[in-house]
């Protein structure tokens, strides 16, 4: 058995990546599931906006004499009929300020604050055990979210869920950065951080179709029970099958002089212009991603209620997004040796720039065009997260790595995670679609410019120091360092000829 274990040891890093990443996926599934199940939960718990909505699945908008959204009150909504059948209902639509607070600030406030604490503790204690405990916390919270009877209970549980999930990123990235070498780091970080989009993508079929099954008469609650149970299984695997890796210096921190490294403080690290600009650029990009994540399903249900896009959104997010993540990591890892860390910034800037016009198309176009452009946008846009944090861990000293990631995520999530709440008031003024142009598409474009600016602050490829060449003509007497005769060499006589002449003259 021991011999077999040794033979399979090469698979251990991949196993760690799988367990940590899948755990992150289910944490993010719990995070984003609210965006897909919001309408069902709102009808059950009675929160958010009420509007006139289509309640038939076998008719198209073009067949309706009057669109449901034109009704401003329940009595008018009740008059809309087709062939004697009411096709509209006055009910909760899952949107409104209550939903935006539930999806964003209530989660983000705890997620970011506890995330800083987790980053600090990760630099001091066993990261594997901490990650297992965090997984238990968010897993139990997801399960309990399926039992709520009141809106405030759901808000409280999302806050507890956020506290547990806040440890996934700093703990997971710290573990993985100590296991995998530099030539695989961006790819590994991309796969791990794809957990955000994996959980978000899986949320579409889970949140749309599982409630419709109404298994055991539980409706939307079954989706939360299932996700939470899987999270607890992954917590078990994390605790009992993973081991804490040895902490190692990587990237720039491995090249810095040891004495200089002692003078570095956490303030020195976070005040680095590169970290500041990267963090601001990431915050803007995160705003775009969160804005679309929180509003994607509701947007398509609002504008195209007669189209079932659940599986299309799943395929675009999981399949195309996954390809983009892998390609981005590979490209970044391949060229980093030639251009240094700045190559990662170049890949970031170009990928987000290319994704921007297609992101616009995903909101502007009709369903078919929207899915096509969304797929192209996702391919390029999802390159960003893994490459970003590969850079961060490479320019931050070992002893502050997890703390810096925690602070980085605190700023990034507070800005990027809370800005989408502005979609609600802005949409009331200029329209829902138009507000997404600003906070989704505009954020992609602005982040591209900011990532490009960061490129000029990054170092190029590291050139190994070459030893000074020796003049090999003649005899090299340097090798005779142990000569105890102290007799002058021929070279010394030649070099000091003038001095010898002076001494001879004095004699």
From TrEMBL:
> Its domain of life?
Eukaryota
The subcellular localization recorded is: Membrane
Output the InterPro entries linked to this UniProt entry.
Answer: MFS, MFS_dom, MFS_spinster-like, MFS_trans_sf
Query: Which GO molecular-function terms appear in the entry?
Result: transmembrane transporter activity
Is Transferase given among the entry's keywords? no
User: Gene Ontology cellular component?
Assistant: membrane
Pfam families on file: MFS_1 (PF07690)
Q: Which residues cross the membrane?
A: 9-27, 99-121, 128-148, 186-210, 222-242, 309-331, 343-364, 370-393, 435-457
Give UniProt keywords alphabetically. Membrane, Transmembrane, Transmembrane helix, Transport
Residue ranges constituting the Major facilitator superfamily (MFS) profile domain according to the UniProt record = 16-459
Instruction: Indicate where this protein is primarily found.
Output: membrane
How does the entry describe its membrane topology?
Answer: Multi-pass membrane protein
Please give the family membership noted in the entry.
Belongs to the major facilitator superfamily. Spinster (TC 2.A.1.49) family.
Please state what the protein is called.
Major facilitator superfamily (MFS) profile domain-containing protein
Q: Which organism is it from?
A: Phaedon cochleariae
List the top taxonomic levels of the source. Eukaryota, Metazoa, Ecdysozoa, Arthropoda, Hexapoda
């Amino acid at each position: 058995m021991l011999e077999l274990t040794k033979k399979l040891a090469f698979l251990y890093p991949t196993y760690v990546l799988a367990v940590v990443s899948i755990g992150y996926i289910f944490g993010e599934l719990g995070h984003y599931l609210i965006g897909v199940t919001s309408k069902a939960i709102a009808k059950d718990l009675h929160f958010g906006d009420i509007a006139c909505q289509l309640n038939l699945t076998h008719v198209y908008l073009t067949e309706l004499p009057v669109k449901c959204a034109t009704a401003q009150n329940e009595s008018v909504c009740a008059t809309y009929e087709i062939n004697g059948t009411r096709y509209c209902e006055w009910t909760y639509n899952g949107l409104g300020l209550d939903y935006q607070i539930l999806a964003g600030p209530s989660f983000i406030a705890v997620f970011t604050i506890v995330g800083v604490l987790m980053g600090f503790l990760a630099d001091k204690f066993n990261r594997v055990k901490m990650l297992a405990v965090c997984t238990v916390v968010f897993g139990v919270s997801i399960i309990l979210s399926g039992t709520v009877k009141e809106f405030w209970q759901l808000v409280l549980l999302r806050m507890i869920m956020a506290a547990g999930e806040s440890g996934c990123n700093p703990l997971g990235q710290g573990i993985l950065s100590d296991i995998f070498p530099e030539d695989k780091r961006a790819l590994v970080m991309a796969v791990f951080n794809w957990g955000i989009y994996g959980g978000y993508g899986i949320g579409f079929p889970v949140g749309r179709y599982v409630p419709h099954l109404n298994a055991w008469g539980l409706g939307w609650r079954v989706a939360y029970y299932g996700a939470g149970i899987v999270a607890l299984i992954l917590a078990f695997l994390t605790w009992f099958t993973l081991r804490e890796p040895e902490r190692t210096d990587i990237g720039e921190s491995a090249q810095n002089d040891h004495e200089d490294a002692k003078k570095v403080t956490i303030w020195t690290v976070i005040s680095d212009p590169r970290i500041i600009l990267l963090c601001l650029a990431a915050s803007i990009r995160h705003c775009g991603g969160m804005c679309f994540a929180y509003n994607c399903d509701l947007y398509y249900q609002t504008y195209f209620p007669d189209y079932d896009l659940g599986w299309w959104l799943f395929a675009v997010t999981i399949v195309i997004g996954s390809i983009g993540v892998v390609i981005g990591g590979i490209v970044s890892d391949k060229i980093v040796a030639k251009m240094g860390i700045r190559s990662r910034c170049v890949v970031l800037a170009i990928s987000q720039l290319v994704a921007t016009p297609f992101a616009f198309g995903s909101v502007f176009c009709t369903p078919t065009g929207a899915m096509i452009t969304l797929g192209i946008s996702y391919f390029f846009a999802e390159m960003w997260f893994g490459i970003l944090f590969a850079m961060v861990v490479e320019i931050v000293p070992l002893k502050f790595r997890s703390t810096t990631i925690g602070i980085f995520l605190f700023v990034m999530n507070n800005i990027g995670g809370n800005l989408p709440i502005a979609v609600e008031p802005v949409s009331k003024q200029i329209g829902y679609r138009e507000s997404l142009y600003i906070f989704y598409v505009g954020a992609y474009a602005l982040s591209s410019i900011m990532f490009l600016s960061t490129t000029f602050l990054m170092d190029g490829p590291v050139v190994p120091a070459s030893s000074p060449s020796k003049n090999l003509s003649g005899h090299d007497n340097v090798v005779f360092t142990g000569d105890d005769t102290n007799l002058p060499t021929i070279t010394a006589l030649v070099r000091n000829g003038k001095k010898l002449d002076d001494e001879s003259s004095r004699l």
